[in-house]
Amino acid sequence: MVKAVKAEGQPKRPMSAYFLWMNDIGRAGVKEKNPGASITEVSKKCGEEWRALGDASKKKYEKMQQEAKDKFEVDMKEWLENGGEEAMRQAKKETQAKKDKKAARA
After folding, report:
1. How much of the chain is helix, strand and coil, in % rounded to 5?
2. Which pTM was predicted?
């Protein structure tokens, strides 16, 4: 997986509906039912519960995700218009320079 270049001040991508649910009630509910569970076990149980969750329950989080996505798109457009493109080019140059330096050492 390639790590995306992140420029300073760049808006963060919004969380998915699953992560919004997990942060809201999912993780806490699983930990309550399985107090001694490891992080990986909690993640697996959360995934099972999310898949078992009804469409009506998921709608709330999907709506929240869509609102966050819309806000992100507006923020990203605004950031790009206010010098974000130049900041992104600079961040890519710096990242490439670090890669080149690391490759030269190897």
Report:
1. 75, 0, 25
2. 0.73
